[in-house]
Specification:
434 Repressor (Amino-terminal Domain); alpha/beta; six-stranded parallel β-sheet; single chain; Rossmann fold; six-stranded mixed β-sheet; about 40% helix; 3 domains
Length: about 350
């Protein structure tokens, strides 16, 4: 008789571990080992179990396994890409805030998914379903999903930061992207600007959709035509901000009716764009005003100092950790699924009223 002792029971409405074992022709305990500790099962058996799990659409219950391995004090943060994020250093700022808040509450931070390739996501899901982590914060990207498994089904508390996933039932901590860009654009309209150049992030990205909508709202509210806004970019990730700014400078140079104000959706874009404009002989802000998004400390030391919309990374990190710990502790405080932490516009010397026509 096959030994099925010490195998965690499952509270799961779909296919069970026993179903996977039956289809694969192995003991339930072998399936348990293959899922929790793949290295302890030979490759041929592991392949049979993996094929059976995929065929059945089986999703193991990480919380049941957690009862066996003990309660983890590790929280995973899942990144949208590399730690490197140009001079803006958005990701390191976020990590510092989250790590500080976790340490204060007795938890450790695990950084995961730098590549967002299938193998990386598979490893993340193995950790999540294997009971290695207690909860996850996902930064500005969708939930990992591969081989029929999704982080959403791992039985773990999850909080989204910088991406609104509240409609999908994931508590989300975001900033007011749309309102912030709308207000910054409105500020430049008050100064007299009537033609704008928008440097975009990746098309269909949550942040770009919100920020672009904010710029359009400002034009609409001021009675300006949408034709007053020229758009550049949309093909590269935010991590390629310097490259986006350089391409935008080339696009700007080809415009016949040139704008007098620029809205860059990251500091990196603005910095490389300004550099190219200055090399071309344009003066900032005398010939062209520029505002960016993120609020990196380096903006203060650019030439000229760069006006930017500063994201409240420290406060957002603290709120994200608080929401996650509430979920871990099953606290029910009646909070909304979506927490909005307001960004603020920092006006510096990169913005001024446009030159009078003919001057």
């Amino acid at each position: 008789m096959k030994d099925n002792k010490n195998v965690p029971t499952e509270d799961y409405s779909g296919p069970l571990m026993a179903d996977v074992a039956r289809l694969a022709g192995v003991a339930i305990s072998t399936v348990s080992r293959a899922l929790a500790n793949p290295g302890r099962v030979n490759e041929k058996t592991r392949a049979k179990i993996d094929a059976a799990a995929k065929q059945l659409g089986y999703t193991p219950n990480a919380m049941a396994r957690g009862l066996r391995v003990g309660k983890s004090t590790t929280v995973m943060i899942i990144l949208p890409g590399s730690l490197y994020y140009g001079v803006s250093q958005v990701i390191p700022q976020v990590l510092q805030s989250i790590n500080k808040a976790l340490l204060q509450n007795g938890y450790n931070l695990m950084i995961a998914n730098l590549g967002r390739d299938a193998e990386s996501e598979r490893h993340i899901l193995d950790l999540a379903f294997g009971g290695t982590i207690r909860g996850a914060i996902i930064l500005s990207s969708k939930l990992p999903e591969v081989d029929g498994r999704s982080l959403a089904n791992a039985g773990l508390p999850i909080v989204s930061m910088l991406l609104d996933m509240s409609d999908a039932g994931v508590p989300s901590v975001v900033t007011n992207d749309r309102e912030a860009v709308r207000d910054a654009t409105a500020e430049m309209i008050k100064m007299g600007h009537r033609r704008f150049f928008y440097i975009a992030g990746p098309q269909d990205n949550y942040h770009d959709i919100e920020r672009y909508a904010g710029a359009l709202e400002a034009l609409h509210n001021a009675g300006l035509s949408l034709d007053a806004l020229s758009r550049s970019g949309g093909n590269l990730d935010y991590q390629k901000g310097f490259e986006i700014g350089i391409q935008a400078a080339e696009d700007f140079a080809r415009l016949k009716d040139r704008p007098t104000a620029v809205i860059a959706t990251s500091d990196d874009m603005a910095i490389s764009f300004i550099s190219r404009m200055q090399k071309a002989g344009l003066r900032i802000p005398e010939d062209l005003s520029v505002v960016s998004f993120d609020g990196a400390p380096v903006c203060e030391f650019c030439f000229p100092p760069l006006s930017t919309i500063e994201q409240p990374f420290e406060e957002m990190g603290q709120v994200a950790v608080a929401r996650l710990l509430d979920a871990i502790g099953h606290a029910k405080k009646g909070r909304d699924m979506r927490a909005v932490i307001r960004s603020r516009l920092i006006l510096r010397e990169s913005i001024a009223s446009p030159k009078p026509i003919g001057s």
